[in-house]
Design a protein that fits this description.
The protein has 170 residues and is α+β, with helices and mostly antiparallel strands. It has one helix and eleven strands, in the order αβββββββββββ. It is globular.
Length: 170
């Protein structure tokens, strides 16, 4: 059976080994850390992930006539600062149904070169909508946003309202 002195010696050795391990790990660990920047960089202004406000354009009827109909989304930045915005088109089903499905419509967007490109829509609780994150852009003071969508209803039984709007992020 070990004596009291040998247990104290064993405990002291364990303590010295543990302390030297910490001391050795300290500089090694510090060497792997990145050096702190010499000067703090100014805080960056971040645009919120979700819009703070919406500006509605004139609503229109969803016409199931097989013809395409243009729905412009316009907004002018009348503020004195840059503003992050995103155009959006909502296709809203009647409260009592029938509820719209993405396959009920064909939606396209007019590009800068004058051609039409397809636009995918999301769907939630009977409302179809265009994507906001992909449409975000910054308008400088006095600048105007004009986005033109071309909507064709391909399902003869589809009903609803088309609501153009602009999401404002700041």
């Amino acid at each position: 059976m070990p004596s009291k002195n040998s247990r104290l010696l064993l405990a002291s050795v364990a303590l010295v080994v543990a302390a030297s391990g910490l001391t050795t790990a300290g500089p090694a660990r510090a060497a792997t850390r990145q050096a702190a920047p010499e000067a703090a960089s100014p805080p960056q202004v971040r645009t919120p992930a979700a819009p703070r406000h919406y500006v509605d354009g004139p609503a229109g009827s969803l016409r199931a006539d097989g013809e395409w109909h243009a729905f412009p989304v316009t907004y002018r930045n009348d503020s004195a600062a840059d503003r992050t915005v995103a155009p959006q088109l909502l296709m809203v089903s009647p409260d009592g149904g029938p509820y719209l499905a993405p396959s009920d419509i064909v939606l396209e967007r007019l590009t800068a070169d004058g051609s039409w490109e397809p636009v995918r829509v999301g769907s939630r609780t009977g409302t179809l909508f265009t994507d906001l994150p992909g449409a975000r852009r910054t308008l400088h003071p006095g600048e105007r946003l004009t986005e033109v969508y071309r909507l064709t209803v391909v399902a003869p039984s589809a009903e609803g309202t088309v609501q153009p709007r602009t999401a404002l992020y700041d």
